[in-house]
Each structure stands twice: as structure tokens, then as C-alpha cells.
Amino acid sequence: MINILASLFILGSAHAVVVEKTVAIVNSEVVLESDFKKLEERSGKPGMIDDALLFDTSLSDLKKNRKAQLNYLINEKILESEIKRLNLAVTSDRVDQELREMAKRNNVDQAELARIIKSQGISLPEYREFLKNNIEKKSLMDTEIISKLRVSDEDALNEYIKANPNSSSSIDEFSVSHIFFDPKKGGAEAALKRAESTLSKLRSGQNFEALAQQYSEDPNFSSGGSLGTFKSGEFLPEIEASISSVKVGETTPVVKSRMGYHIVKLTNKKITTDPKFARSKDAIKARLLEASFKRQLKQWLQSKRDESFIRINE
After folding, report:
1. pLDDT of residue 2
2. What is the DSSP letter of 205?
3. How far apart are CA 291 and CA 66, in angstroms?
4. C-alpha–C-alpha distance, residues 139 and 90, integer Å
């Protein structure tokens, strides 16, 4: 009996074939030698490598550095373990739905979408597997990291000021009226005298709006001498400087500008959001969120690696 068993074992061994090498074990997942070949193929196809898992490694380094490749594959296996643990695996129907939505977003039918995918050197089954993995990873990231990220307007403001040290998130918005005296009518000296005469009337208690109606030489005169509402930096610098020291309802002395002479009344003033900051706020928050996500992902993966069983056979 022993001889028969020994013969069977030898016979079995003679026909045994080593299919491939197990490079690493990550929990219940294995990293095979063939995974390196598949990773090499993926790295040459657009969008098939998850940039979030590269961290400080560039794609070009990944292609030639086996240690970086192993690290990347271990990270992928950890994600696979967590997806299974949290029951986040998706069905084939869910992948079909995503392909239909993708075709709709790009205004093509599914046959055309398949041709586009194939033109990138990616087979449809390969892309379906890639898409399945991406949907699962996104669900995992949403659960474990993204839902916990917070970036406030204050964070965006601090980043904006860091990049623009002479700026702030808010600026003055003011409304002004004026009585204008045009040097083209009799020269600058005569225009100044008319301005000073009108200012004397104003100081004696006469109504600004009535004086504007009677004496202003603004060719585009509007009721009460109103010039409208402006934000800091949008109006004549001489007038902005003159109203900086007056309160709402008060008037300035005679102010000279490149246009002529003015008596200016500050009719309203408030703090408003700087348009430059307002325009860039969403983009700043997006950058901060992306940077925060990468930091949190790196920390999260490291904690999972610490918790995981990992054996490397190299």
C-alpha cells in the first residue's frame, strides 16, 4: 500500500505544473506574478491606473520600479478586502447601468461607446472589469473618507490670502452722488471757483440734491447727482480716497480728478465679498478637498496595512 501511494505521488508530481508564482498574500487576497504583467499593460492605457493610489510615485516610475508596482498592487488588494468586508461589491447590472449613463452623457449609443473604448486599446470585458472596480472603490472611498472631509469657506479664504497676501475676502461697496464742475467751461480756475461757491452753499445748509440739480455740469446727470454703486478699485481713485474719511450722508470738500472738480456725497456703504475671491472660492475648495482626500487616503491605507496580514515572498 505504501509503495502504491508513493508511486501515485511521484506520478502526480511528474505531471504537476507550477502555474505561476504567488508574490504576496494580503489577507485573503493574493498578488500573483501575472498581476505585474497586467499592471504593466494597464499603465500604458489611458485612465486605467488610479492616480489616488500612486501617492508620491509618478506613473513613469511605476512602470519601471517593481517595488512601487508591488506597493500599488498591495494597496489595490487592501481595497478589495475592504470592499468585500463592507459588502460593497456591485453586480453586472450595475455596470451595465453605468455604461448606459456614460453613453448618454457623451451623446453616443452603446455600440459607438464600445468602439471608442476599443480605440483606446481596451477590450470591452477589460473595461467592464475596470469600471466595476472603480464603482466599488468610489463607494468605499465615499463611506470611509469622502463623507468625513470638511473644507470651509474660512479654509478657502486662508488659502486665498496665502496666495494673495495683499487681498482679503471682503471689500467696501459704496454708493455715491456728486456735483460736477467741468473745466471745459471757462477753464480749470473758473470751474474750481464754481465748485467752492457751491460748497459754501452746501455748508450753509442747502440741500445737496437740489444744488446738484441746479449746478452740476455732468453731461450724464441723473437725479440727485447719483453716480451709482461701486466696489473698491472700480471707481476714480481720487474720489475713492476722498470718501474714505466721511460717513454715510456726509459730503467731501472739493475733489480734483482727471475729469474736473467734484463735491461728493457718500449715500451708502457696506462690506461685500471681494469678486476675485468669490470667483475663485469654489476652485480653491476643490483643490483643498483633493489634497485633503489624498492625505486621508494615505493615512487610511497605512492604518489598514497595519491591521492586515501581509506576507511578501520576494
Report:
1. 38
2. T
3. 26
4. 10
The confidence score (pLDDT) of residue 77 equals 95
Question: How many other CB atoms are there within 10 angstroms of residue 225's CB atom?
Answer: 24
Question: pLDDT for 82-108, tens place per residue?
Answer: 999 999 999 999 999 999 999 999 999
Give the torsion sign (CA, 172, 174, 178, 180).
positive
Give me the phi and psi of 236, to 5 degrees please.
Answer: -55, 125
Q: What is the largest CA-CA distance in the chain?
A: 131
Q: How many residues make up the chain in this entry?
A: 314
Give the residue ranges of DSSP H helices in the chain. Answer: 2-15, 33-43, 59-64, 66-85, 92-105, 110-119, 124-144, 153-163, 188-203, 208-215, 237-243, 275-307
Type of residue at 95 = V
Domains and CATH numbers, the chain: 13-149+290-312 (1.10.4030.10), 170-273 (3.10.50.40)
pLDDT for the residue 19: 63
Q: What is the pLDDT of residues 235-270, one digit of tens each?
A: 889 999 999 889 999 999 999 999 999 999 999 988
Asked if 37 and 111 touch (Cβ cutoff 8 Å), the reply is no
Of 289, 245, 279, 268, the closest CA to residue 167 belongs to 279
Classify 223 as helix, strand or coil: helix
C-alpha cell at 245: 474719511
The predicted pLDDT at position 314 comes to 76
Distance CA 260, CA 188 (A): 8
Low-confidence ranges of the chain (pLDDT < 70): 1-19, 167-170
